[in-house]
Amino acid sequence: MNKKENAPIRIVLAKLGLDGHDRGLKVVARMLRDAGMEVVYLGLRQTTEMVVTAVEQEDADAVGISMHNAGHLTLAPRIVKALEDAGLDVPVVVGGIVPESDLEAMAEAGVAGVLGPGSSAEDVATCVREAVAARGE
Amino acid sequence: MASEDSTLISLVEKASEGDRRSVGRLLTLVERGGDSAEQVAEATHTLSGKSHVIGITGAPGAGKSTLTACLARDLAVSEYKPAVLAVDPSSPLTGGAILGDRVRMEEASEAGAFIRSMATRGHAGGLALAVPGMVRVFDAFGFNPIIIETVGVGQVEVDVASAADTVVVVVTSGWGDAVQANKAGLLEIADLFVVNKADRPGASDARRDLELMIDLSQLTGQAVRRPEIVMTTATEGEGLDEFKKAIFEHKELLFEGEQISIRRSKRWKAEVRSRLDYLLSEVATESIENLEEEKGSSPGSVARKIAKNLLKKDELR
Ligand SMILES: Nc1nc2c(ncn2[C@@H]2O[C@H](COP(=O)(O)OP(=O)(O)O)[C@@H](O)[C@H]2O)c(=O)[nH]1
Ligand SMILES: [Mg+2]
């Protein structure tokens, strides 16, 4: 039961952690929409469980999470693992400030892509598309 | 194909055991249309028909999602297993969409409501085909009630919501909103009105406008009684009890008499109609694809010739 080619990519977009701004997340949502994707927008202060529930019910193809304080090394792997544990085979793309030196650890934890603050709309869309395509194979 | 069948059978099996991920997958298959959607429809048809379907519509920003969230949460913490299908428009330019209704439905989700967001996706009539099928999936696997939220702007969206058992039209406080709703054709379909944002000035104005318009309008065949008007402040959960009560009263009224079967057979017919339209338009598209211009034949005569030939054939699967 393969995904039909013409169906848009559905991505769950959330910000983890306690910080309060969703401006960046909204910009990313618009970028993805303009790239033809369907963005299930969860907004701020999401927990791992909320993301997993959304992916399950929305049958999403990918997860995009944003985090701005230095939680990426704990939060991102936790999401990846929670999705795996729930039997959900979807790539996780992380946006935020991730130091070069952490990139390898993120990849090892199963994060499919990391997007820094300077990423263009095209970078963002391409990263998600490639992450989804890689899972489909 | 054999493996597709077995995948489908196992999805249906798991969904009946309460596996929400399988329900999510089945919804996707229906949403995408085509053969798999037909197979899901066959598999769920006989299992469905038990659930109460509530349509909630109104202008963008009226508070539909906030209200839906209150209702779904309240039902989920009592003895119900509600599902929400929240429809938002796709961008006509890119085909993408931002589906933001879940933001307001966090608590409902945590309380156990199943929430599914859906984009209108461009193709004509797609929504009219997909929504009844998705509702049937929820129905087949024990979700009850099923709440459909749509923006009361596009005709298809209004049609989709108005195919529900109980149709709720949401307007906001202040002058003019009810008038707009009337213009958008929402007045005729309402079983129940909600004046939301009652914390703002003008709630009683909106109510009076509605009363006047109901007085002036002929109650259509669809209405089982004069629609009730409920005032709410959805952000505070105020008026929720009255809202719930009005919905359940309407439901009881429907199920007491013949109304429910009248309404559902109308809905059934409308669904057959939209599927027929779709099938015919597909065949039409195919048959003009390789058509060469016949100089001297009028378009009308060619169309009739094609139609005659098609009607003889067993083209439809
Ligand atoms: N003041 C006030 N604001 C409300 C009320 N209900 C919803 N809102 C706000 O109206 C905005 C739109 O609400 P939403 O539920 O998304 O509307 P929808 O587009 O109809 O689904 C949000 O900012 C809500 O917080 C209410 O009863 N009073
Ligand atoms: Mg909404």
Structural description of this entry:
- The complex is a heterodimer of chains A (137) and B (317).
- With 137 residues, chain A is of the alpha/beta class.
- Chain A has helices spanning 23-34, 48-58, 72-85, 100-108, 121-136, and strands at 10-16, 38-46, 62-67, 92-96, 113-115.
- Chain A contains 5 helices and 5 strands; from the N terminus they run βαβαβαβαβα.
- A 5-stranded parallel beta sheet of chain A has the order 2-1-3-4-5, with helices on both faces.
- In chain A, α2 crosses α3.
- The longest helix of chain A is centred in the C-terminal third of the chain and has 16 residues, at 121-136.
- Chain B is of the alpha/beta class and 317 residues long.
- Chain B has a 7-stranded parallel beta sheet, sandwiched between helices.
- Chain B is built from 12 helices and 8 strands.
- In chain B, α8 links the parallel β6 and β7.
- β2 (38-46) of chain A pairs parallel with β3 of chain B, so a sheet runs across the interface.
- Bound molecules: guanosine-5'-diphosphate and magnesium ion (MG).
- Guanosine-5'-diphosphate binds at residues 60-66, 104, 196-197, 199-200, 233-235 of chain B.
Q: Would you summarize the structure shown here?
A:
By secondary structure, chain A is of the alpha/beta class. Chain A is built from 5 helices and 5 strands; from the N terminus they run βαβαβαβαβα. Chain A has a single domain (10-136), classed as Cobalamin-binding domain (Rossmann fold, 3-Layer(aba) Sandwich), CATH 3.40.50.280.
CATH architecture of the largest domain in chain B: 3-Layer(aba) Sandwich
Give the overall shape of chain A, derived from the CA principal axes.
Answer: globular
Kindly estimate the percentage of residues of chain B that lie in beta strands according to DSSP: 5-15%
Oligomer designation: heterodimer
Number of helices of chain A: 5
Helical proportion of chain A?
40-55%
